[in-house]
Design brief:
about 400 residues; alpha/beta; Carbamate kinase; VC0802-like; eight-stranded mixed sheet; 11 helices; globular; binds adenosine-5'-diphosphate; binds aspartic acid; binds magnesium ion
């Protein structure tokens, strides 16, 4: 073509942004604008909003715990629908666009179905198409394992596709388009006076995301940090500048608390009458790990008469799997009670300024106490404090804590 390209842009549009034909045409118009400004554009799209949930429900209607390989084959169709429609919409505007599945775009993963990790990205075909002057539309959330099976990257995984492709293509710009104006101090749907952040560090974004702020998939932020991909989170409905996610700067440390998040997808398992001797905890958590379940908080009580209680939290979706995986072991070691509860939520405050400021925990506990909200478990790290509370109180707690730390407008 001999055309001179100004830059290479990766744009990702989430489920709401492609939620109906009008919105898909809106995306096409935005992509066309970037293309006509002289950029090579790679577009990653999610399934239309509600489609992935619908497919999961459909699968469960056929089988109570669907085989994960087949579930991935099914789930990948959501994004495959959107790439075709987006490419068509671009053709309607006179732009040559080509849609590619994850596999066709060179996204290779391990074989852990429903939460596969990207092992390698070889976007040869993407490069060829870009060089031929095409806009390339790639299906988010999916890849292919070495055996050739379709895999998916975990919920919200289109973010990861975008970041991984931006890294592999050495994109000049990576833009995550969504249904809010950027990353806020708290979920703007729960906390009305939440404030949009101009920028946020990888570590803070990573904590916020893995602690429940679903605006970015946490694994995608991890990937971005590792491969130094600077990206922006912004709205597909307007031209506001959004939030830049990047390496931390000195100035960022001045802010003690960057944001508050709540994760309602938590479940708690308690093993009581666990023998208090070396090796027991290792056996229990080895079993859980072998089932590919991420354990989050762990609390062990002081032991009484050689026995102790062990409580830990896991993602709600893994509750059945966890229960099954440790049932026989619990019987084996004589842990006679085995309870599990849903209805818990994890509330967290996050900020790199916590490294150099004291008193955050006290302020947090005080705010909750004033509202008579009971704390069931606590965990801390260098830049966050998390508490487990009752789900029914979670939204109120979030507002109260947000106010306590002066995060509002
Ligand atoms: P997409 O479909 O574009 O990937 P998601 O639904 O995955 O969008 O993520 C966007 C949503 O994340 C917003 O609608 C918002 O309700 C929620 N959210 C939670 N916490 C935050 C936060 N701190 N800042 C912005 N949005 C947040
Ligand atoms: N469609 C997938 C999901 O709903 C992936 C994504 O939207 O990023 O989780
Ligand atoms: Mg998302």
């Amino acid at each position: 073509m001999g055309r001179q390209w100004m830059k290479l842009i990766v744009q990702k549009y989430g489920g709401t942004s492609v939620g109906n034909p009008e919105r898909i045409k809106n995306v096409a118009a935005r992509v066309k604008r970037s293309y006509e400004e002289g950029a090579q554009v790679v577009v990653i799209v999610s399934a239309m909003s509600g489609v992935t949930d619908g497919l999961i429900k459909l699968a469960r209607d056929v089988h109570p715990s669907p085989p994960e390989r087949e579930l991935d084959v099914l789930l990948a169709t959501g994004e495959q629908t959107t790439i075709a429609l987006t490419a068509m919409a671009l053709h309607g505007l006179g732009i040559q666009a080509v849609s590619l599945t994850g596999a066709q775009a060179g996204i290779v993963t391990d074989g852990v179905h429903t939460k596969a990790k990207i092992s390698n990205v070889t976007p040869k075909r993407v490069h060829e198409l870009l060089d031929a002057g095409k806009v390339v539309i790639v299906a988010g959330f999916q890849g292919v394992d070495p055996a050739g099976s379709i895999t998916t990257l975990g919920r919200g995984g289109s973010d990861l596709t975008a970041i991984a492709l931006a890294a592999a293509l050495k994109a000049d710009l990576c833009e995550i388009y969504t249904d809010v104006d950027g990353v806020y101090t708290a979920d703007p749907r729960i906390v009305k006076d939440a404030r949009k952040l101009d920028d946020v560090s990888y570590d803070e974004m990573l904590e916020l995301a893995s602690l429940g702020a679903k605006v970015m998939q946490s694994r995608s932020v991890e990937f971005a940090k590792k491969f130094k991909v600077v990206f922006s989170v912004r709205s597909s409905m307007n031209d506001n500048p959004g939030t830049i996610v990047k390496k931390e700067t000195r100035k960022m440390e001045d802010v003690v608390i960057r944001g508050v998040s709540v994760d309602k997808n938590q479940a708690k398992i308690t093993l009581s009458h666990v023998p208090d001797k070396p090796g027991v905890a290792a056996r229990i958590f080895k079993k859980i790990a072998d089932s590919q379940i991420n354990v989050d908080m762990i609390v062990q009580n002081v032991s009484a008469e050689g026995h102790t209680d062990l409580t830990f939290t896991i993602p709600k979706d893994d509750l059945e799997k966890a229960r099954k995986s440790i049932q026989s072991l619990a019987a084996d070691i004589g842990a006679n009670t085995f309870a599990s509860t849903e209805g818990i939520a994890k509330l967290s405050v996050v900020g790199i300024g916590m490294r150099s400021h004291t008193g955050v925990a006290a302020d947090l506990f005080e705010a909750l106490a004033a509202e008579k909200i009971n704390i069931q478990m606590i965990s801390t790290s260098e830049i966050k404090i998390s508490v487990i509370i009752d789900t029914a109180q979670a939204d109120r707690a979030m507002n109260v804590v947000h106010g306590k730390f002066g995060l509002g407008k």
